[in-house]
Design goal:
With 687 residues, this protein is mainly β. It has 5 helices and 42 strands. The strands form 9 sheets. The chain has a 22-stranded antiparallel β-barrel. A 5-stranded mixed sheet has the order 1-8-9-4-5. Strand 11 and strand 12 (168-177) form a beta hairpin. The two termini are 47 Å apart.
Length: 687
């Protein structure tokens, strides 16, 4: 009996295997890049049990914050708003929940996190200091899963699975808080009468096609509200939607097209008195980007493309709040700006040991009308006293060009040692205005105008990278420098709220930062962890401030140290110790006083930022009981027990000065957290 065989094609399910080479830190061409291990982040001690990407970033060299409750983070002495923060291809203007205690990234939804601290590739632009690129993951293409976690102040849940097995996936995640019960435990009556709430939600649909193309539709929403003792409050939210189409155009070329629309709204409420008011701000963004990835015949890698971003900014409306308010409504004209760029980035492997990457980004920014433009006798120094009139203009009101070269090189001395260097020129056309210690959720955004030029920066880096013990130990030492032109600063007692002539309150100067970063990391073993240390300075020089001399910026912290130690005696049990130390940041303080003829004592203040608040240090502990090993279990659980600020250090967020009539000036320390915060978080997975 003969059997006849016929040929047929059978579509197998796609299997994706992703891993990082053990010597990736040596082979990687770029310098000044931090990759965040999401599994490690989930084991770190966290305030009130909520794992956090930004808190994890603060444990790496060159990344700092002015303290608990501060919005955003600072990179190599830069301002908070000088960081470009991306969720996939969408720009986020505020990444903080609960006034800075948590970030807006749900760790269950994140696939990969990279922070570019200085040498920024040409495909990124719009900020002068750093890029935080957060890539969200797809849902499972083969089976449905549910994950979640329950903590003392917030809970989260995510659902994922296919609509058509192997062809598409849906991922939905929701996180929400319930913090009021914690506030009720405070001894301070004003805190007891306060309330706070936040939520964030992520949606992602991914469709795969037979030709290896894919379509991704995603959405993000977050909302925060905070009320302090019915005295003042904040309400702010983000809405963002994205469409991303990835296609294979040929054997060695692929395309990535994205379209993003987002909106950030914020309101600040003052409830009491004749000045009761609501301050409104809003930023809208539409962004389109097309990039091509090409692999050359000799292994060259080329990224080329173009992008365009349209900003529409509501720069601050002040409205009366309540029937008793005597605030006069003031609504300012909206502002528009169009930032467009073409970019090219290419890398070559010249020899086994030498690789070079070069790029160029050409940017055109247009300030758009219609807009009422104030005119001054001296356009270089606009002020209220030399205002000559106004003119209503339409069309393109002003144009700025920026040519931004990027360069990096890597020389391997041997398989475990490499020297890297990099340079990038960057420009920024939108700034967040705040003359306080830290921006608030309602701090307005300001586009570049005919009177407010874009900030520009030169960024330099050079470092030595060394691995040992079969790449289990990673270490590097990196030197960096940054020079900034047209840095935005503020006049003393600047009035920023609902000011239609905001250029009269701003100053333009130069900035510089430089330092050394050191990192030592042990990746595997019963004992593992890392040590990071940063020695740095961040300074500014502005005409009219500190006798035109260089002075420390608000984010100048010469010494910053972080230690993470893990004791992992098996895969399920991990004990983690985390210690942070940093120099106290600069402040301006009274250095004397004089008495008026009627007896009043008037303080005399130092030059800007000539003193420092007390140094910061904190110890955190955590114990993680991981999920079980049984693959047949439908329900898996894990637990994290943590204590944040173990020895109850009352770190100063700021030092402020008060004076009673006919009495000398008194220094006061404001501490956001002054005690230990224990927490228990339960995590589960159902499949």
């Amino acid at each position: 009996m003969a059997l006849k065989l016929r040929k047929s094609a059978i579509d197998l399910e796609e299997v994706v295997v992703e891993a990082e080479a053990p010597d990736a830190n040596i082979d990687r061409l770029e310098i000044g890049v931090e990759q965040i291990d999401m599994q490690q982040i989930k084991k770190l001690p966290a305030v009130l049990g909520e794992t956090d990407i930004v808190k994890g970033l603060l444990l790496h060299p060159g990344v700092s914050t002015i303290g608990e409750g501060a919005i955003g983070f600072n990179v190599r002495g830069g301002d908070v708003d000088q960081n470009l923060i991306l969720q996939d291809n969408g720009v986020l203007f505020n990444t903080s929940h609960a006034l800075g205690f948590f970030s807006s990234f749900n760790t269950e939804m994140v696939k990969n996190v990279e922070l570019y601290k200085g040498n920024i590739p040409a495909q990124y632009g719009g900020r002068i200091v750093s890029v935080l690129d957060v890539q969200m993951r797809d849902g499972d293409f083969n089976k449905f899963k549910m994950k979640g976690g329950i903590g003392p102040v917030s809970s989260r849940i995510s659902l994922e699975g296919p609509l058509q097995k192997g062809k598409n996936s849906v991922l939905f995640g929701l996180r929400s808080s319930y913090t009021d019960w914690v506030l009720k435990q405070a001894r301070n009556l004003e805190v007891q009468n306060s309330s706070a709430f936040f939520y964030d939600a992520n949606f992602r649909f991914t469709q795969r096609f037979k030709n290896n193309n894919s379509l991704i539709i995603s959405a993000y929403s977050s909302d925060d509200s905070f009320d302090y003792n019915e005295t003042f409050g904040f309400d702010y939210n983000t809405l963002m939607g994205q469409i991303n189409y990835k296609s294979i155009l040929g054997k060695d070329i692929s395309s990535d097209f994205s379209l993003v629309a987002s909106q950030y709204q914020s309101s600040q409420f003052d409830y009491i008195g004749l000045d009761a008011s609501e301050l409104q701000n809003e930023v809208n963004l539409i962004k389109a980007k097309e990039s091509l990835y090409i692999v050359g015949k000799n292994g060259e890698e080329i990224d080329v493309g173009l992008s365009s971003t349209l900003y529409s900014v509501k720069v601050g409306n002040r409205l009366p709040f309540g029937e008793g308010s005597q605030v006069i409504p003031k609504e300012l004209e909206n502002e528009k700006g169009l930032e467009s760029a073409i970019f090219l980035n290419a890398s070559w492997i010249f020899t086994t040991n030498l690789s070079i990457s070069g790029g160029l980004r050409l940017v055109n920014y247009m300030y758009l009308g219609p807009k009422t433009i104030f005119q001054y006798e001296d356009d270089e120094n606009p002020s209220l006293t030399n205002t000559t009139g106004t003119i209503l203009q339409s069309g393109i009101l002003n144009t700025y060009w920026s040519i931004e070269p990027r360069f990096s090189a890597r020389l391997k001395l041997n398989p475990t040692t490499a020297i890297k260097m990099g340079y990038s020129r960057t420009a920024q056309f939108i700034n967040q205005l705040f003359n306080s210690d830290s921006p608030t959720p309602s701090s307005q955004y300001q586009l570049s105008t005919p009177y407010i030029e874009p900030s520009r920066s030169h960024n330099f880096s050079v470092g030595v990278f060394k691995n040992s013990k079969d790449n289990n130990w990673e270490s590097y030492i990196e030197l960096y420098g940054r020079a900034i032109d047209r840095l935005v600063e503020y006049k003393d007692f600047a009035q920023l709220i609902a000011n239609e002539q905001i250029e009269t309150e701003l100053l333009s100067g130069m900035g510089r930062s430089y330092g050394m970063e050191l990192s030592v990391k042990k990746k595997k073993g019963v004992y593992n962890g890392w040590l990071s240390y940063t020695l740095s300075r961040s300074e500014r020089q502005v005409q009219g401030i500190s006798n035109n001399n260089w002075y420390p910026s608000n984010f100048d912290q010469p010494h910053n140290l972080a230690l993470v130690f893990n004791y992992q005696y098996n895969k399920r049990h991990t004990f983690t110790v985390n210690f942070n130390y940093s120099t106290g940041r600069p402040t301006t303080a009274p250095i004397g006083n004089y008495r008026t003829p009627d007896g009043l004592i008037i303080p005399v203040f130092s030059e800007r930022n000539q003193f420092r608040i007390p140094d910061y240090h904190r110890l955190d502990l955590a114990y993680t009981l991981g999920m079980g090993y049984r693959k047949t279990s439908k329900i898996k659980t894990s637990w994290t027990f943590s204590v944040y600020n173990f020895y109850g250090r009352r770190n100063a967020f700021s030092v402020y000065f008060t004076q009673k009539p006919y009495a000398p000036t008194r220094a006061n320390k404001l501490s956001i957290l002054g005690s230990a915060f224990p927490a228990v978080t339960a995590n589960f997975e159902i499949q």
